[in-house]
Amino acid sequence: MRPELAARLGENVPRYTSYPTAPHFHAGVDAAVYRGWLQGLDDGDEISLYLHIPYCDKLCWFCACHTKQTRHYEPVTTYLRSLLAEIATVASLVGGKGRVRAVHFGGGSPTMLKPEDMVALGTVLRNSFEFLPGAKISVEIEPNDMDDARLDALAEIGITRASLGVQDFDPKVQKAINREQSFLQTKAVVDGVRSRRVESVNLDLLYGLPHQTRESAASTVAQALTLEPDRIALFGYAHVPWFKKHQTMIDEVWLPGPAERFAQSQLTARAIVERGYQAIGLDHFAKPGDALALAARAGTLHRNFQGYTEDRCETLIGLGPSSISQFRQGYAQNIPSTAEYARMVADDGLAAVRGIAFSEDDRVRGWIIERLMCDFAFSAIDLVERFGERGQRLLLKASSVALDDPARLLELDGDNFVVPAESRPFVRSIAAKFDKYFESGKSRHSAAV
After folding, report:
1. Cβ atoms of 5 and 407 closer than 8 Å
2. Dihedral over alpha carbons 283, 287, 291, 296 (to 10 degrees)
3. CA-closest candidate to residue 232, choices 177, 289, 277
4. What is the pLDDT of residues 240-253, one digit of tens each?
């Protein structure tokens, strides 16, 4: 690696699953604003739904999600009553104007739900909203939760994509992150969802974990590939103990340094591509016939809070504590505290407490950042045609980034600004150059690579 690139390995920047990013949300977007945005949907709008289940029966120390551990099911039952009440409020405000294109269950551990509760939740959603034919249903699966009854429940709600967290199969790494899960256990769940005709299986892998080496990461990828997943997400572990206190259980001495993290990421990515998978954006891979790969080749790939997606819906409604909704007007986020969420839903039916309304400048910068993250390029002509004079002004910024940076992370190729192949692992650092909030922000972020 060129020295000027190696020097960028230690940079900390946002992940850019949104722009502006969540640390810049504010209380000016509250439940009243959110209510107006829901009511303002147009007839025939296509929408996506995200449902957050904020509980796990065992807390993984690497996790940075909004979740809490419970060994009893009673808090989950209580929470579901609040979630159903929020769904009823949102559905009444949408008033039948939004047609559901996709649903994503995340957490936490959605598969911690009892089978009957999962089925009931799926039924309520279909009774509350109009679902388009062929709507996609994605569920994040914790293999330690699974049994035949839960697999049958997922089939009953119409799951089309199963996303399994793997992280790493090395026992030493698993012990260090408090996530013990064997290969055979994972395979049994993959076989179980496929026998129930799920369309797509996604595996989530991590590099940069405690005690992880290039050898252990490569071994995990080799084992994962034997399962023939349709998609693989290969994330860098985000060590943010100032944000998630349970990550203090991971001794920083155990963590690989920036150069080793980079080596792990490149070695594992290469192994996946050599097996015929198409690289998608920064950290996803898909079989060439997968919808994600088709979208990437067509230039219609998008990025939202679940990562890379072929979902083109402008409206994403988040349900549950900490969930973020996206509208044409901006972002709105529910309060993270489960107890406060329940109180707000009981009082008002909604729990949004912060967010941000898009300025015209946000829209231009957000478009550039999304195209860089998805395509590693953007068109100067397209930028100006879409955004006029404001787009023209930002071209000057793009030219400065392309021409003045000695690392040459961004280059001008005719009318296109392009991230060269060797610079693609640093695309988050490039995106940060177009983030007007980044330099003045006080938030701390995870490593860029």
Report:
1. yes
2. 50
3. 277
4. 888 788 888 889 99
Q: Give residue-wise pLDDT tens across range 185-234.
A: 999 999 999 999 999 999 999 999 999 999 999 999 999 999 999 999 99
Alpha carbons 212 and 327: distance in angstroms, whole number: 40
**pTM of the entire predicted model:** 0.93
Residue 303, H or E segment? strand 302-304
Buried b (16+ CB within 10 A) or exposed e, 319-352: bbbbbbbbbebbbbbbbbbbeebbebbeeebbbb
127-168 pLDDT tens trace: 999 999 999 999 999 999 999 999 999 999 999 999 999 999
Cβ(324)–Cβ(332) below 8 Å: yes
Amino acid in the structure at residue 152: D
Q: Is 65 left (phi over 0), alpha (psi -120 to 50) or beta?
A: beta
Q: How far apart are CA 376 and CA 372, in angstroms?
A: 4
The residues facing 416 across adjacent strands are 379, 413
| H or E element in which residue 100 lies | strand 98-107
Pairing of strands 284-286, 200-207: unpaired
Residue 421: Cβ-neighbour burial (10 angstroms; 0-12, 13-18, 19+): exposed
What is d(CA 31, CA 426) in angstroms, rounded to the nearest whole number? 37
pLDDT at 448 over 60: no
Phi-psi region of 228 (alpha: psi -120 to 50; beta: other; left: phi over 0): left
Distance, C-alpha 158 to centroid of its chain: 21
Query: What is the sign, positive or negative, of the torsion defined by CA atoms of 56, 165, 227, 289?
Result: positive
Structure token digits, residue 443: 């938030």
